[in-house]
């Protein structure tokens, strides 16, 4: 499988960890970029770790 580690400009702080086509749908899995600091999406301050993940569908 090809290496799909790249950045997307519209998902700052994440990198593409995998790409696959399932039933004519493109599935792109993102992971936190280890080179970016973790920032709390609620208050905007640096965070010590990730406590939750979310599966989202973007159309």
Describe the protein in words.
The protein has one domain (1-59). It contains no helices and two strands. The protein has strands spanning 14-22, 25-32. The protein has a two-stranded antiparallel ribbon with strand order 1-2. It is elongated and about 40 Å long.
Strand percent estimate: 25-35%
Question: Which secondary-structure class do the elements indicate?
Answer: mainly beta
Nearest-integer average pLDDT: 81
Q: Quickly count the domains.
A: 1
- End-to-end Cα distance, whole Å, is 25 Å
Let me know the largest β-sheet.
2 strands, antiparallel
Helix content: under 10%
Instruction: Give the C-alpha Rg.
Output: 13 Å
Secondary-structure element series = EE
Q: Given the structure, what is the number of helices? A: 0
Global geometry: elongated
Provide the low-confidence segments as ranges: none
Number of strands: 2
Tell me the strand order in the biggest sheet: 1-2
Detail the topology: elements first, then pairings.
Blueprint: E1 14-22, E2 25-32
Antiparallel strand pairs: 1-2
């Amino acid at each position: 499988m090809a290496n799909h580690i790249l950045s997307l400009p519209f998902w700052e702080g994440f990198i593409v960890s995998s790409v696959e086509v399932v039933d004519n749908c493109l599935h792109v899995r993102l992971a936190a970029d280890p080179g970016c600091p973790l920032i709390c999406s609620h208050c905007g301050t640096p965070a010590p770790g990730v406590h939750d993940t979310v599966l989202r569908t973007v159309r």
